[in-house]
């Protein structure tokens, strides 16, 4: 049990549909808090968290996709351009990890979130993928799709899907 | 992070289809080993494992379902009758936990495994359910059903499904 490499947990995180960038969605924050409280606990050296944010492509040709953020300082050097584009969504998660003393890495990719997450799992080979989920009913799922269901079927590693707490669900449950 | 109650992980475990009782299936052992290596790690006081074995009912009216096993000694008092019926499948898991120093409980229920597991999740309210999976293809799944898919949809807690390692898959992948 001891002496092994840290357990690498990948987390797919996205922005709030209500507040926009740089705010993380309710389900992303919930999944992150759950992982810290229930899995990492006090064993901060036993885990490394890998935060992936997938941006849906837009028209302005933004393609600075190769930056890796691992400490609060990395965000200080971030260009103004990237800040306005919401890249500092990741800053929240990296700062929290830094405070607690859990190693982390964070990066951004562009594309269809569910496809990109599964592709990155294949590339990075984490021990576990954690994704937040809005816990929508079958009717709502048809229209908005669900990343978590797709990943549970297709990701090449074990997957935990963490549903939002009932008391954190916004008036319109499609919001997050 | 510290001072909180232990994270309670429920595991559904079953017997080997090849070797029968009291041997645990390949996927049950794999899910158990994964949980120890990747989640519990050295933090043995931070977790409690709850082993549930669901027996499919047979005709001899066996109904001694209320025993709880939490240490190797508990199995010494087991009646010969129960031993021949395979209840000591649970002994393997309880002994391993005892060696490592992880608190555990183990019990047996009768019924349809997927329904009973979800029912027990509702009753016991673990933080996480871990189930092993044979990782069958869609064609095989139609005929044998899969407990893990059902639980991922219906259990009222986060679920991890751990697939068997490729090098542990028997000649006939339906075996376990």
TrEMBL record, chains A, B:
User: Any idea what this protein is called?
Assistant: UspA domain-containing protein
Q: Which domain of life is it from?
A: Eukaryota
Report the PANTHER family cross-referenced here: ADENINE NUCLEOTIDE ALPHA HYDROLASES-LIKE SUPERFAMILY PROTEIN
Q: In this protein, which residues make up the domain named UspA?
A: 25-161
Cite a single Pfam family from the UniProt record: Usp
Positions the record marks as coiled coil are none
- Output one GO MF annotation: AMP binding
- Species of provenance: Populus deltoides (Eastern poplar)
């Amino acid at each position: 049990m001891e002496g092994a490499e840290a357990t690498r947990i990948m987390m797919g995180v996205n922005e709030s549909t209500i507040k926009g960038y740089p705010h993380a969605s309710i389900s992303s924050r919930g999944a992150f808090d759950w992982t810290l409280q229930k899995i990492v606990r006090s064993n901060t050296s036993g885990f490394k968290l890998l935060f992936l944010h997938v941006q849906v492509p837009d028209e302005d040709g933004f393609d600075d996709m190769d930056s890796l953020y691992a400490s609060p300082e990395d965000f200080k050097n971030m260009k103004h351009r990237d800040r306005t584009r919401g890249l500092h969504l990741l800053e929240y998660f990296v700062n929290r990890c830094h405070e607690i003393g859990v190693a982390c890495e964070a990066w951004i990719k562009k594309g269809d979130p569910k496809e990109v997450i599964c592709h990155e799992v294949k590339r990075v080979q984490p021990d576990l993928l954690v994704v937040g989920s809005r816990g929508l009913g079958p009717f709502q799922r048809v229209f908005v799709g669900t990343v978590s269901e797709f990943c549970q079927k297709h990701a090449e590693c074990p997957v935990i899907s963490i549903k939002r707490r009932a008391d954190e669900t916004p008036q319109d449950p499609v919001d997050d």
